[in-house]
Every structure is written in C-alpha cells, then in structure tokens.
Design brief:
By secondary structure, the chain is an alpha/beta fold. The chain folds into 2 domains: 2-354, ABC transporter type 1, transmembrane domain (ABC transporter transmembrane region fold); 358-573, Rossmann fold (3-Layer(aba) Sandwich), CATH 3.40.50.300. 62% of the residues lie in helices and 14% in strands. The chain has helices spanning 2-15, 24-60, 64-112, 116-122, 130-170, 187-207, 210-233, 235-240, 244-296, 302-319, 321-324, 326-354, 408-416, 446-451, 461-470, 486-489, 492-506, 522-535, and strands at 172-177, 180-185, 357-362, 369-377, 383-392, 397-402, 422-428, 432-435, 444-445, 483-484, 510-514, 540-544, 556-562, 568-573. The strands form 3 sheets. It has a 10-stranded mixed β-sheet, with helices on both faces. A hairpin with a 5-residue loop joins strand 4 and strand 5.
Length: 579
C-alpha cells in the first residue's frame, strides 16, 4: 500500500504542474472532452447491453419485425460508438502533444539552467542518460498515463453502470449451511469480484519483477545508444589508433547487458502471459457457467441470459483492469521512477548551486576581472588552488602557466562561474567569453555556428564573412547558409580559428582562453593573438598555455605552483614587454 501511495504521489508531482501552468485551460478543456467522450462510450455500452436482451428474445421468439428494428437501432449505436472512438483518440493525441511540448520545455529549461547539465556530470551523472529521459521517457510517461487513466476511468464507470444491472439480474443465491438457509443478494456481482480479486493477486505475484526489469532495460538501451554516438563522434581518433577491435568488444559488452536483461523480461512476460491468457480465456466462459443453471431451469430466457452474461463480463472485466494492464503498469512505473529520479537530481543540483560559496559580483574598480579570497576544491573536498588576489586590467594580457594537474583549467572554470566546488569572489565588468581548447560547433548552418551562443540575426553577413577571412578561414566565407556537422568537417586548428572569430564578433570585455590556440602552429598562434590585440584593445585577456612562445604575446606571466602539502598558488614571474 505504501508503494502504491508513493507511486500516486510521484504521478501527481509529475502531472499536476501542467494542469496548473500557462497551458492549463487548453489542457483541462482537452482532458474534459476526452473524459466526456469516455462517459459517452460507457453509456453506449450500457445501451448495447440492454439491446442484447431485446434482440436475442426477438430471435428466440422468431419476431422478424422486432429483429429488423433492433438491427437499425444497433446501426445507430454502432455509428455513435465509432464517432466517439475516433474523436477520443484524436483529442487524446492532441492533449498528449501539448502536454509533451510543455513538459519538454520545462525539463530542458531546468536541465540547462545555471549549468545544471554540466554539474550533474561532475557529480558522476547520477541521472544517467538525460537525453533519453527528456526525449523518450516524457513521451512514454504522458501516453501511458493517459492510457491508464482513461482505462481506469472506463473500468470504474463500467463497474458502476453494470454492477447495478447485474445486481438486478442476478437475484439472490440461496443455500443451506449449518442447518440454516443463507441468501446472498446480487451473488453474480460478488462472484465477479472474487474471480477478479484472485486473478489480480496472482498477476501481481507473477509480474511484479517486470518493474525493475523495465527500468534496467531503458537504462541499458540508453547506455548502448550513447556509446554508439561516441564512436561516431570520435571516429577519426579511433581510426588513427586502430581501436575498432576494442570499440567493437566494448559495444558488444554494452549490448550484452541489453540482451541479458531482455531475456529476463521475456521470461517474466512469458509467465505473466501464461496466466493472463488463461485468465482471459476462462473469462469468456465463466459468466455462462455461472448463469446457465438459471437458463436451463427455465427461469430466464435467452435474451436475459445473453444480457446477464454480457453484464457479468463487463463487471468482471472492470474488476480485472489491473490484470489486463499489468505489463503496461510495470513499464509505466519504471518510467515514473526515471523521471522522478531525474527531476530530484536536477532540483538537488540547483539547490546546491544556490548555496555555492562562489560569488559573482560587478567589478567596482577599473579592472574588468578581479579574483579574491578564492579556494578551488575538487568534488571530494580537497583544496586544488588557492588565490588571495588576481586582477586583469583593461587591455592587459595575462598568461597563466603551470605543470599539468595544478588546476589551471579548473581555476578558469571557477572564474567563469561553472565550477561549484570551493569558495571565493569573482568581480567582472561587462561580458565574459570563455574559449575552451576544444570549441563547440552546433549542428546547423555555418552562420548559426559562428554566431553561437548569440542569435545569428545579431550579426550582418558582411561582419561574419570579414571575421572568417581575418582569422584565416576565407574558404568558409561563402558558405554561411550551408548546413553540416561542422565539428567533424573542420580540423582542430580550423575549429580554434573559428572560436577566435566568435570572440571578434562578440567583442567581450573579459576573454578567458583555455589553451584556445594549442592546435595551431606558433606563427598562426602569434598572428591570432595580435589580431585579438588589434580588434579588442580594451579586453582583459587571461590565457592558459604551455608554449614558451606565448610569453612574448602577453604583458604579465603568472605561474601556478603546487606547495608540498597544500593547494597550488599563484607566483608572479618577470616578463619582458610584449610586442
């Protein structure tokens, strides 16, 4: 019972925001229409049940006029039922796509807000495969929730409608026990309930393992798909290192988990199907077994037998809702668990972000970038870098060096505001732009990739073509509207030139370069740094690099040096004036 209440609480938490959100009136109207059509469907079923009595009595009595009249009446009932079925599916799908659109927007916004997607990965990707949870699980949750809700609503209304009919048709069941006469009113209703209750209990015992198996199957399928994508995206590196054999073995190992778990689902589903199929076949004959004695005793006619059998089947089917829908319920439960887990991890990560000890404040002095009282820590709590004070003046170019592992890139992430572990104050004036060693080039038009992360409409075509030519990519100046996988088409050096072109477009006040020119030759690197100085004369530039040739391209040189038993600290180095 606690598990059922917990599941209902999770479903409420996932569903109710939509029906209280900005699209609530359209959503509620569509839901109301779907429910109304379901009521109409049940009412049509009740009418057809009553029609059974008259129709089969007409057959038994060989009353041809009554027979033909009932056929015309059935045609009307059938046409109404078909119209109800068609529009209920249409309106349900309309509700599904609106609900999915709203829910996808909310989940994407939460996942991408405040670098949550990045912070989740830093925590070990506790919410595994967020792409699957947003793309697949939301769609499955909405369609299955509506299907189960409508099915349960149908079962409840059918039970309420036909239980009354069956109660009136069944009369009392009299028997002698312990020397006394006993009567059970409405015994057919109780027989249907007892039959379905026993079936539901047995179905749960047999099929409950499907919940965990379905949960694991979705995870294994997503893991396998993600690894396939990684092989595709890193095809060049794999080919150069002749790593196809290793990748094949790793992918087959991932796929092995998919197959092994699927075998478990097959075995569990086979056991459940043995039971549900047998239960369903027995359900066809069971009403006749219960009602037939009264017919053969001559107390009821054929029409009443058929009506009673139909009503009994409807009541028993309503009671058996959980048996018939058990496999769907097991899959639905696993989807609910995945979405709730993802939502909780996102909320926890965002709460931690709000409580983070880093503070981003506007610059108060002349320097557009200032850092003070900063301690950068690793996720396990160990101190990595400690800085008392660091400032970069307008137009100043500062080079930060240090041995591998001293925390240079992590320090840059903390200054950029995406590293959550540690504390300190970062003062910035104006716009900050960070260029990592491996730039991100989104799929789409070259114009959109170059303008990223700003809207492409912000920049004129002349400006886009000019910066491409300035950074040494004139061949791409005429391809602004061409769409492609630019991360795969451009070499590492071309991608870094592309990123510098972005900086020239954006004209940031603070530019953070994390080995942003490491894939270029020294002459090209020097040319790009001179270009930045010419085009962005007032920008404060903080660079990370290892090459000695970078020294002459900066005015200030600071090294991170690790102390014996403590975090790395900044050590100023003398530097000749840059050219």
């Amino acid at each position: 019972m606690r598990a059922i209440l917990s599941l209902l609480a999770d479903v409420w938490r996932l569903s109710i925001p939509y029906f209280r959100g900005e699209d609530k009136w359209r959503g509620l109207a569509l839901l109301g229409a779907v429910i109304a059509l379901e009521v109409g469907w049940v009412y049509a079923t009740v009418l057809i049940n009553s029609w059974n009595n008259v129709f089969y009595n007409a057959i038994q009595e060989r009353d041809y006029p009554a027979f033909t009249h009932q056929l015309w009446l059935f045609s009307f009932y059938a046409a109404a039922s078909i119209a109800i079925a068609v529009y209920q599916i249409y309106l349900r799908q309309w509700l599904q796509i609106r609900w999915r659109t709203w829910m996808t927007d909310k989940y994407l916004s939460a996942w991408l807000a405040n670098e949550t997607h990045y912070r989740l990965r830093l925590k070990g990707d506790q919410a595994d495969n967020p792409d699957q949870r947003i793309a697949d699980d939301i769609s499955a949750y909405i369609s299955q929730t509506l299907s189960i809700f409508i099915g349960l609503l149908n079962a409840v209304m059918t039970l309420a409608s036909f239980a009354v009919i069956l109660w009136g048709l069944s009369g009392d069941f009299a028997f002698n026990l312990f020397g006394g006469e006993w009567r059970i009113p409405g015994y057919l209703v109780w027989a249907a309930f007892a039959y379905a209750a026993l079936g539901t209990f047995l179905a749960h015992l047999i099929g409950r393992v499907l919940v965990k198996l379905n949960f694991d199957q979705q995870r294994f399928e997503a893991d396998y798909r993600v690894d396939l994508v990684r092989v595709r995206e890193n095809g060049e590196q794999i080919a150069l290192m002749k790593g196809e054999g290793v990748e094949r073995a790793r992918l087959l190992d991932r796929f092995g988990h998919v197959v092994h778990n699927y075998w478990g689902i097959m075995i569990a589903q086979k056991r459940l199907t043995w039971f549900t199929a047998g239960y369903g076949q027995l359900s066809i004959i069971f009403p006749f077994v219960v009602v037939a004695p009264a017919y053969f005793a001559g107390t009821i006619q054929l029409g009443q037998l058929m009506q009673t059998s139909s009503a009994f089947g409807q009541v028993q089917g309503s009671f058996s809702f959980f048996i018939n829908a058990y496999a769907t319920l097991a899959e639905w439960k696993s989807v609910v668990d995945r979405l709730i887990g993802f939502q909780r991890h996102v909320e926890t990560t965002q709460a931690e972000t709000l409580k983070a000890s880093y503070r981003q404040v506007p610059a108060t002095g002349a320097a557009p970038l200032g850092v003070r009282d900063m301690e950068v820590r690793l996720p396990d709590g160990r101190a990595l870098v400690a800085i008392d004070a660091l400032g970069v003046k307008p137009g100043e170019r500062v080079l930060l060096t240090g041995a591998s592992g001293t925390g240079k890139s992590t320090l840059l992430r903390a200054i950029a505001g995406i590293w959550p572990y540690g504390h300190g104050v970062v003062e910035t004036g104006g716009r900050v732009l960070t260029l990592p060693q491996r730039p991100y080039l989104p799929v789409g038009s070259l114009r959109g990739a170059l303008a990223y992360p700003d809207p492409m409409e912000r920049f004129a075509d002349e400006d886009l073509r000019e910066v491409l030519e300035a950074v040494g990519l004139p061949a791409f100046a005429g391809r602004l509207d061409e769409r492609g996988l630019w991360g795969a088409e451009l070499s590492g050096g071309e991608q870094q030139r592309f990123a510098i072109a972005r900086a020239l477009l954006v004209k940031p006040d603070v530019l953070l370069l994390d080995e942003a020119t490491s894939a270029l030759d020294e002459a090209s690197e020097a040319a790009l740094y001179r270009l930045l100085r010419e085009r962005l004369p007032q920008a404060a530039i903080l660079s990370i690099g290892h090459r000695s040739t970078l020294l002459e391209l900066h005015e200030t040189h600071i090294a991170l040096e690790r102390r014996e038993d403590g975090p790395a600290r900044l050590v100023p180095h003398a530097l000749a004036a840059a050219e």
